[in-house]
TrEMBL record:
Residues 1-17 have a biased composition (Low complexity). This is Two-component system sensor histidine kinase DesK. It comes from Humibacillus xanthopallidus. One of its GO terms (cellular component) is membrane. The chain crosses the membrane at residues 33-51, 57-76, 97-125, 137-156, 163-182. PANTHER family: NITRATE/NITRITE SENSOR PROTEIN NARX-RELATED, SENSOR HISTIDINE KINASE DESK. Keywords: Kinase, Membrane, Transferase, Transmembrane, Transmembrane helix, Two-component regulatory system.
């Protein structure tokens, strides 16, 4: 009768992840009741005791009915725990108490028929309660069951069979308590892991939205100011700038949608071309890598990260530098952006923090320093 105590209720109460995956319920779950019912074969011991008790037939029938009721409560209670597990829910304490009380009452009701043989129900009660009740209550049930079994062995029936039951109840309590603690800790770890994934995704979206909107809105602002100055001097040029603003706005909207969907990927070649337009619109002379194959010198593994860095660096140059010139240098695993105004002790903003996180996540290093002779700012990334 050692089987049901350790394995029976543990299976339906395990708090592991749902194995059904994203394609629906596992078709094998419908047979879970059969697996749990297998352990009820150990109820053959009280059945044999009742049948061989020599009691009148109606008392034998009543005793067998109580055993069947115990088995039914055990199976239905285990199925309830299994449903809660599949839904990633904690056990319902009130229903757990109700099932446990029903098991205890059914077991006690057999005492008039089989006496100390009713102790054979205790492993089922202990193992079920260990997963159906709050941990403190479950441990209390386990301790009370062991104490009750020891008391019966000491004061009622000190036979070898009774002491065997005591050992089994104690072993079941210890093993199921260990399983319960490990299951609870595993559930907490999984919940924390899911929370960390959500936090990382929020940070990714926030970083990408900042980089996309910061750059796009900066360019739009610069071009809108330029169009305002040209509207009287050169209406055709102003109209062209307004058309570019419209195109940039649509592009920014598409990039935001792609960012939210996790599909946004920066391309280094595109960012170099975008940097040329943004710097020109702001009246800053750009010194950028030349030629269609300018990005070929960069390791393909690093191009996406360097593209995000270049986008944010150029945005900062346009918005904050008041520079006349900007230099961009590309090497195999290195990007350097220089402009004409120093840091002047300004703290890092969200944009710099965002690209620093990107670079560090890729195993690289970002440095932000004042240029030679205290003029200009130098942003260098090495991957």
């Amino acid at each position: 009768m050692t089987g049901p105590a350790v394995t029976g209720p543990a299976a339906p109460a395990t708090t592991g992840a749902d194995r059904s995956g994203s394609h629906g319920r596992d078709p094998w779950e419908r047979y879970g009741w059969g697996i749990r019912a297998v352990w009820l074969v150990f109820l053959v011991f009280p059945v044999i005791a009742i049948v061989g008790s020599g009691l009148p037939w109606w008392q034998v029938a009543l005793g067998l009915l109580l055993v069947v009721a115990f088995g039914a409560v055990y199976v239905f209670g285990s199925e309830h725990l299994d449903r809660r597990r599949r839904r990633h829910c904690e056990p319902d304490a009130r229903r757990g108490v109700a099932f446990t009380v029903a098991l205890v009452v059914s077991a006690l009701a057999t005492v008039p028929f089989i006496g100390v043989g009713a102790l054979s129900f205790l492993p089922f009660v202990v193992s079920f309660g260990m997963f159906a009740l709050p941990l403190r209550w479950a441990v209390g049930i386990g301790v009370a069951s062991v104490v009750a079994a020891v008391a019966v062995a000491l004061f009622v029936d000190g036979g070898e069979g009774t002491w065997v039951v005591v050992i089994i109840v104690f072993a079941v309590g210890v093993m199921t308590a260990g399983i319960r603690v490990v299951s609870d800790r595993s559930g907490q770890y999984e919940a924390m892991s899911r929370e960390l994934v959500l936090v990382a995704e929020r940070e990714r979206v926030a970083r990408d939205v900042h980089d996309v909107l910061g750059h796009s809105l900066t360019v739009v602002t610069v071009k809108a100011e330029l169009a305002e100055r040209l509207v009287d001097l050169d209406p055709a040029r102003a109209k062209a700038e307004l058309a570019e603003i419209q195109a940039l706005s649509r592009q920014a909207l598409a990039e935001i949608r792609a960012t939210v969907g996790g599909l946004r990927v920066a391309r280094l070649g595109d960012e170099i071309a975008s940097a040329a337009g943004a710097l020109a619109g702001a009246g800053i002379e750009a010194h950028l890598p030349d030629g269609e194959h300018a990005v070929d010198v960069v390791d393909p593994r690093h191009r996406t990260v360097l593209a995000w860095v270049l986008r944010e660096a150029v945005t900062n140059v346009v918005r904050h530098s008041d520079a006349d010139e900007c230099w961009v240098e590309l090497e195999g695993n290195r990007l350097v952006v220089r402009d004409g105004r120093g840091l002047e002790g300004r703290p890092e903003g969200n944009g710099i923090r965002g690209i620093r996180e990107r670079v560090e996540a890729a195993g690289g290093r970002l440095s932000l320093t004042t240029g030679d002779a205290g003029h200009g700012t130098v942003l260098e990334v090495v991957l």
